């Protein structure tokens, strides 16, 4: 088990965008998405998304380092509304956390929790009134331990 002094959580640099895109891709594979269902240009799509979110939605990424090697990452930004946002910021300004990923051999050591906490702090600085995320089954205990509630998402599969 690593001690906190060996884990460094810091803001990612733009030079690490490709690594963050790779973490996002690996996250999908780890939760069971078959590679055949992911577009071949996933890296360019992710990098373009990051660039646009950085420009328009106050995007930031954070990385976890162990012995100067990045072993995890998390992304956050303002939530891109699904409908017209007619509310004042002090009433409803949502942040969104996505792509929390820790390499397999470093899991269950509190790194995902530390990354998520860092993202939450940043979103608080932006004045967000709520933080949203979509959790994988393996991530739910991490987010529950931080006070996230489990929501009701209703869906209808069409395929």
Structural overview:
With 159 residues, the protein is α+β, with helices and mostly antiparallel strands. Helix content is 31%, strand content 22%. The protein has one domain: Gcn5-related N-acetyltransferase (GNAT) (Aminopeptidase). It has a five-stranded mixed β-sheet, sandwiched between helices. The longest helix is centred in the N-terminal third of the chain and has 15 residues. The protein is globular and about 45 Å long. The mean pLDDT is 94.
Describe the structure in brief:
This protein is an alpha+beta fold and 159 residues long. The chain is 31% helix and 22% strand. It has a single domain (4-145), classed as Gcn5-related N-acetyltransferase (GNAT) (Aminopeptidase, 3-Layer(aba) Sandwich), CATH 3.40.630.30.
Mean pLDDT: 94
Based on CA atoms alone, the radius of gyration comes out at 16 Å
What's the total number of strands?
A: 5
CATH homologous superfamily classification: Gcn5-related N-acetyltransferase (GNAT)
Overall form = globular
- Terminal CA distance reads 43 Å
pLDDT < 50 stretches: none
Q: Strand order of the main beta sheet, please? A: 1-2-3-4-5
Enter the CATH topology name: Aminopeptidase
Q: What characterizes the major β-sheet?
A: 5 strands, mixed
Query: CATH class, please?
Result: Alpha Beta
- The structure class reads alpha+beta
Number of separate domains: 1
CATH architecture: 3-Layer(aba) Sandwich
Helicity range of the residues? 25-40%
């Amino acid at each position: 088990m690593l001690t906190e002094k060996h884990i460094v959580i810091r803001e990612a640099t733009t030079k690490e965008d490709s690594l963050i895109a790779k973490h996002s891709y690996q996250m999908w594979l780890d939760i069971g998405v078959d590679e055949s269902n992911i577009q071949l240009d996933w890296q360019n799509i992710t990098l373009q998304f990051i660039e646009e979110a950085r420009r328009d939605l106050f995007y930031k990424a954070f990385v976890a380092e162990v012995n100067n090697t990045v072993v995890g990452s998390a992304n956050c930004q303002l939530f891109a509304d699904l409908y017209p946002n007619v509310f004042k910021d002090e009433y409803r300004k949502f942040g969104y956390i996505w792509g929390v990923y820790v390499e397999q051999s470093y899991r269950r050591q509190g790194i995902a929790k530390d990354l998520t906490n860092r993202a939450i702090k940043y979103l608080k600085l932006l004045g967000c009134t709520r933080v949203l995320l979509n959790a994988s089954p393996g991530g739910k205990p991490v987010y529950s331990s931080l006070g996230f509630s489990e929501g009701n998402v209703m869906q209808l599969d069409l395929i």
